[in-house]
User: Fold this.
Amino acid sequence: MSFASVLKTSRALSWKVADTVITGSPTPAIMGIVNNTPDSFFDGGKHNTVDLAYEHALKLLDAGATILDIGGESSRPGAAPVPAEEEIARVVPVVERLSKLTSQKSFTISVDTIKAATARAALKAGAHIINDISALTFDPEMPNVIAEFKAASVLNHMRGNFGTMQQDFKPYTNVVEEVRSELLLAAQKLLDLGVDCSTICLDPGIGFGKTLQDNLDLIAHTEDFLKDGYPLLYGMSRKSYIGKIKGLENSDRLIPTVVSGIFAALGGATVIRVHDCDEARESLLLLEAFRNGSVLAV
Assistant:
């Protein structure tokens, strides 16, 4: 297969979110990260009030995001748990304010939470997606909430918890097949409750309890996940695996994040989750130009 044919082929699968179908074609949708937290690994404390988080969300929309992922609890290794009441106080007011704009600006709202109580409050406030980084393993009520609200979901692979996921985890024998198998088991929980499979998106969980080689393998083998028929989300933005690559130890990780996003796009990701939406948008516009032939025809 030639390089030109790879560029021209988008393998992304469609994802149904509320009344929207996110195709990921010709390039992935951009999910912008909005952390109303004091301790997130990259931007903790930069937007940790409702007003600051809301203003940042608007900037991400202007920069090209079509999905906003609102978080009120850090998932960085070693992060302290946040009570549901506090997480709700951080997240729900932002969702309420943004939900008033969705018809004008044509975007969808995701909430990054492992707690059913937070998910329920956020969905009532106008969120469309629950992004559960535990893939439904931390809160047994989460599948019921997603099914009740007919919400779209992102199931992110993770082993252990925030404190242990980068330390005391069992090494993988075949990381791609093991992650794939565990994500399919998570998806089945929703299917058993009558959730439409088209609303479920899988995330291999880059950086969540994986070695550098594990992460590289998961990014390189999207086809193994696509064969199950679920759309894929890849979240690689500024993550520590980049700094473990020889020569990138002191990188600010921005350019490697952009390149990772392009690699995920070529592999068939429907969504990429990023902090830096401007840079992601520009790189995907270039990819789109190649794909529609305007550059290749020169």
